[in-house]
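Lecture notes, unit on protein representations.

Consider one protein chain, 304 amino acids long.
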Amino acid sequence: MLSDSLNFFKQDGKHFFKNYFILNGIFLMLLIVLSYFLFKVYFEAITSGTTPGGNPDYNFASTLFNDNFAVIATGGVLFFVLMLFITLLNFAYPVLYLKLYEKNKGSNFQTKELVAELKLNFLKILGFYLLSLVIILPIIMVLVAILVLLSMILIGIPLLLITIPLLFSLMSLSLYEHLNSNEGFFASIGKAFKYIFKQFWAILGSTIIFYLLIQVILTIVSMIPYIIGMISIFSDVENSNNSANTFSALGILMTVVFAISILANYILHNLLMINQGMIYYNSREMIENNSSFSEIDSIGNHFE
């Protein structure tokens, strides 16, 4: 599961991400612009009271929001809606890509075929996520809350480490099943349970390792510009007494790091979803005892 996932990106990563950015690039750019704008406004508001030389009777945050309420509110709503849409697309894209990959016996398909597949399955994708939000999410929230409380007596900590990746795997495998078969929402979840308990520790271990890999990369991607920026800012502080410029530079730095983190998180999420795809096709082949998924199953053999 691990090697096949990594070998997939070695073999077809260029084609995968090329189509990903064609489909998702404009939406990601809009999200980054909106996140930059909103976080910059938020940072200026929370630091306005601590900026030296300011008038203590002047409430910058209140004035800012009162004078620009319509613009900020519109930006916030657009950011939320766009984030939901990109999240939905980000979960669905790897599933549909591997579906076409299997159908075409490799990556010999074009963006228009992915768009056609997305249009064809859009209502199924939307229905899956709406039902997940209404039915599954509340159950997950209650379960996680109980495990957090149990963490106070230590037993909840290992349970959290097992439960969270399993829940993610459960929903990911359910989506793969839902979009690759005629199964309904609940039937897909039932199938996903079968897949997980057929190879419980292998699926759990693979999901945890890929999650940790993504977190390490995200930390590096976020910390490098932050560290460089902080060094630059404090170097300027030593040569200048202008605290206002320091706060302004710090705000820009934090905003840029925030935007980079959002972008990196969406891009790297594909690694985890492709890994879940390898788990899905492997598990489905084991349970159904057939070789109909030979092209995906043989990805790892191309590098032996």
